[in-house]
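Sample A.
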Amino acid sequence: MERTIVVDASIARSSGTTEHPVSKACRDFLQEMYSVGHKAAFDAVLMAEWRKHQSGYALRWFGLMQSRRRVVSVKCPTVDREYLAKLINEADNLTLNEQQAALKDVHLAHCAWVTDGLVSSLDDTVRNIFTAISRNCGKLGGIVWVNPSKAEEVAIDWLKAGARTEEDRKLKNRSLDGRWEQ
């Protein structure tokens, strides 16, 4: 079953050709996405970030994905953008720096909302911020967020199994310290 996954620029940047564990995990994740047949979602902001930060490997992967018509260009409705920005700006449980970080990466949630609700990113800081905000936004809490560099998240197995929307991977089911709640 093919799914559409938002792939953050942090993965593009880290997917170089070194044997560093994070680099290898990102390369393996992108390769498995391609092999299984999943699609990648990008809006204009994410596309610009990819172009700025992509490794040579990510550039080749993106070209392969495009040639197979597995790159999905998305645009989030203005009402969703305004709603999430308002939630972030009014969140009393976030510091100013956390609000700024969330606003900087809000496009990841936007892309997820208009596709299959799946995000892959190395940015656990923003994931934890979105987890905190998700207590007031069910739509945000429904996003599945996977970090390919975390062995315990078994991202490759998740891709092979169809990148399903598993309850225990949703933002709303993470504790505020970043662990998955049982």
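Sample B.
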Amino acid sequence: MSATPTDYESIFMFPEGQRVLEDLMERFAKAPFVAGQPDQTAFNCGTKAVIEHIWAQIAAAKGA
């Protein structure tokens, strides 16, 4: 069973979930490019994509 957008919103709407999301953003939502390091850049793009997916699910739950 897949998580729904509402599932994401319900997890991250509480203060604890907001702190977790802020922590994840600080760690993984930064600019992904690292000059001369294509492997690190690819890894960073992957971690950033997870954060973007979370935000997209929250937005979908809110009807945005």
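B remarks: The chain has one domain: 5-28+38-61. The two ends are 24 Å apart (CA to CA).
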